[in-house]
Amino acid sequence: MQRNSLILEDRPINHSLSLTDSHSLPEEDKSVLQIWGGNPLHGHVKISGAKNSALAIMAGAILCPDDCRLRNVPSLVDVARMSQILAALGLKIERNGDTLDIDARHLQQSQAPYELVSQLRASFFVIGPVLARLGAARVPLPGGCAIGARPVDLHVRGLQAMGAEVHIDHGMVHAYVPGRNPKLKGAKIYLDYPSVGATETLMMAATLAEGETTLENAAQEPEVVDLANFCRAMGARIRGAGTNTIVISGVPNLHSVDYPIIPDRIEAGTFLVAGAITHSEITISPVVPDHLTAVIAKLQDIGAKVIAEEPNCLRLVPGRLRATDIETLPYPGFPTDMQAPFMALLTKSEGDSVITETVFENRLGHVAELNRMGADIRVKGKHALIRGVSMLSGAPVVATDLRASAALVIAALAADGKTTIQRLHHLDRGYYDLEGKLRQLGAKIERVQDKTDAGVEADQTLTAPSQILTPPQMQS
Ligand code: EPZ
C-alpha cells in the first residue's frame, strides 16, 4: 500500500506551552542498552496508557473550545512531540505526572515546524479537528518512515468528500472549506483500506460538520473506539465505533471533559512475549484482555497459557514453545505492531513458522539484527520464514524502528551472554521505562553511555558497568 512523501519550510514556534521536564524532547540519546540474557522474570508489571490512543485524543482536544483533562497519559517522546505541535497551533498544555491539561481556546491556523511533524506521523491527524473548528488548516505532509511510505491519500479524499478544497503545495497540505460559512458537510465515505489514522482524522472532522457522516470500511482498533468515547464525552454524537461502519451526526459545539486513556495493548503484548521467551510466570495490569484476543490466541497456540486473573489483569504461564504462522491484519486481526516482538519469540520455538506482514510494506527491518543474534530467518517479499533455534547469543545490534527495538530487547532477554542495543530513540518513542520495568521483573538490563563511536563494538568481556544513566525523559 503506498504512493508519496515531501518537505517544508519551518517557522518559529510561538510557545504558549508550559512544559515540565518530562515534556522537553531529549537530546540525541547516545546511550545504549546492555542486556545479560538467561535470567527468568517474575512478579508483576504495570502497563502504561496507550501511546496510539493518547496521540489521537490529544489531536481530538483541538475540537473543544475549552480545556480538557487527559489522565493516564504515557511519558513518551511521541507525546512530548505532539504537545509541541499542539503548542505551535496555539494550544496551552500543562502536564502533571500522567495528567495532561489541554486548553484549545486560542487555536489559530498556523503550521507546525516540519522537523516536528516529520518525526511524528500522527501529527497529521490534527488536520481533521483544525479544519472542523476553523474551516481551514495547513499541515505538512508527514512523509514516509522506516516501515513504509505511509501516504495520507485516504485522509485527504475523505476531507474532500466533506466539502473541503485540499491541495498540496511545496509539501504542505492546504485544506479549506469554501463559502461564507466554512463548515464541513456530512458525507458517505468508503475507505479503500481500514486505515486507523484516516478513520480517526475523518471521525474527528465529522463531529462538528453539518449533517451526518458515514465511514464505511472503517478501522475498528481499540484506539479508534477510545477516541470516539473521548469525543462522545465532549458531546459528540458517534455510533458504531469498533465496527466497520461509523456514523457521526455533527453538533455545533463540544464541551470540556476529564478523560482516562486506555492501557497500551502493544506494551502489554510485549511483556507477555517477554515472559513466554524467558519461560517466566508474570502478571501484567491494567489491561483490557479483549484488546489482546489475537495475541493471546497465538501465545496459546505456541504452548503458553494466558489467564485472566481479575477483570484487568493477565497472568502468563510459560510452556514449551511450538511454531505457528501469523499474518498481520487490521484489528481484530493480529496487530502489525506485535509482529516484530512475536518474531523474536518464534526464533526460539520448535519448528518452522511463517510470518506475513500485510499492513506495512517495509516492516521486516529487525530480521537482519535477529539473525546477528543467531536466529535463522529468511525473508521472501512480505513473508519471513523463521526456523526455531535452541539458542540465541548476545551480540551488538542496532534498532531500526520502534517495534523492532522491542524485538531486540526480547531476544536479548533469552540470549546467551550480553547484547548491546544501539539507537534507543526508537524505543523511547513508544515504551515508558521499558528497562526499569524489566529490571523490576528481575532482568539484568542497564542503559549506559555509549563509550564507542560505533557504539556496538562494545568489548564483549565487559562486566556490569559502574556508571548507569537513566534516560532524560524519565526524570520528570
Ligand atoms: C496507526 O498508524 C498506528 N499509529 C501504527 O502504530 C499502527 O502500526 C497502524 O495504525 C496500524 O495498526 C498511530 O496510531 C499513531 P494506517 P497509521 O493508516 O494510522 C496505508 C506503532 O508502532 N494507508 O492504518 O499511520 C498505510 O501506508 C505505530 O505504534 C494509505 O495507503 O496506520 C499502511 O500501509 C507504527 N493511505 C496501511 O494503510 C492512507 O491515507 C495502514 O496504515 C492511510 C494509510
UniProtKB/TrEMBL annotation:
Pfam families: EPSP_synthase. The keyword Cell division applies. It catalyses: phosphoenolpyruvate + UDP-N-acetyl-alpha-D-glucosamine = UDP-N-acetyl-3-O-(1-carboxyvinyl)-alpha-D-glucosamine + phosphate. It is found in: Cytoplasm. Its EC number is 2.5.1.7. Keywords: Cell cycle, Cell division, Cell shape, Cell wall biogenesis/degradation, Cytoplasm, Peptidoglycan synthesis, Pyruvate, Transferase. Phosphoenolpyruvate binds at residues 51-52. UDP-N-acetyl-alpha-D-glucosamine binds at residues 121, 150-154, 337, 359. Signal peptide: none annotated. The modification 2-(S-cysteinyl)pyruvic acid O-phosphothioketal is found at residue 145. The keyword NADP does not apply. One of its GO terms (biological process) is cell division. GO terms for molecular function: UDP-N-acetylglucosamine 1-carboxyvinyltransferase activity. The active site is at 145 (proton donor). Pathway: Cell wall biogenesis; peptidoglycan biosynthesis. One of its GO terms (cellular component) is cytoplasm. Gene3D superfamilies: Enolpyruvate transferase domain. InterPro entries: Enolpyruvate_Tfrase_dom, Enolpyruvate_Tfrase_sf, MurA_subfamily, RNA3'P_cycl/enolpyr_Trfase_a/b, UDP_GlcNAc_COvinyl_MurA. It comes from the Bacteria. Residues 37-438 form the Enolpyruvate transferase domain. Belongs to the EPSP synthase family. MurA subfamily. Cell wall formation. Adds enolpyruvyl to UDP-N-acetylglucosamine. This is UDP-N-acetylglucosamine 1-carboxyvinyltransferase. The lineage of its organism: Bacteria, Bacillati, Cyanobacteriota, Cyanophyceae, Coleofasciculales. The gene is murA.
